[in-house]
Amino acid sequence: MAVRTARPSLYISVDIEADGPIPGPYSMISFGAAVAGRQEGEVYTAADPERRTFYRELRPISDAYVPEALAVSGLDRDRLVREGADPRAAMAEFRAWVRKVSVDAQPVMCGYPASFDWTFLYWYLMRFGGDSPFGHSGCLDMKTLYATKARVPLRAAVKGRMPRELLSRRRHTHHALDDAIEQAELMSNLMLWRP
């Protein structure tokens, strides 16, 4: 029986901003993505995270929102109702972008923490188009990656306790594209780190 070789992985950092804690009752109001790097076997090659990016602001899907959650992003909900992208169109554009940048590799969404961003992203991909270029489980959590490599409990895997050389020099602004780029740098630093 022939040994099946794994396709290279293309890691795509994704950050989302939402107006509440869960998708469905609440809305993903913006999301950004940046190619972090590529892994072939044991070799990881970092990408310039500003080179291949995607960003959309979305029209809310419900009237419900949590004012404190909305305030984090600084986005104007009334403007998004009028001018935000239709979620179905935005997710179709995102699927096409992911497939284009990962044409010869398996795309993997990575986030910090992935649990929140993946919940919204996957729900939106499935609700507005019925498929995900990442499959149902193609995500990697940077908190878990750090905790495993550093051999610390997951609750101790916070940026404030990480070695400075792992952190991006960019600010975390709560603008989804800015944060996706910042986290793409963290992802590459973590992948290349040998503690």
Automatic annotation (TrEMBL):
Q: Does Thylakoid count among this protein's keywords?
A: no
Q: Please name the InterPro entries in this protein's record.
A: RNaseH-like_sf (IPR012337), RNaseH_sf (IPR036397), Rv2179c-like (IPR033390)
The molecular function GO annotations come to: exonuclease activity
The chain positions of domain 3'-5' exoribonuclease Rv2179c-like read 88-190
Species, as recorded: Streptomyces amritsarensis
Q: Keywords in alphabetical order, please.
A: Exonuclease, Hydrolase, Nuclease
Question: Is-annotated flag, keyword Transmembrane helix?
Answer: no
Q: Which Gene3D superfamilies match?
A: Ribonuclease H-like superfamily/Ribonuclease H
Its name, as the record gives it, is: Exonuclease
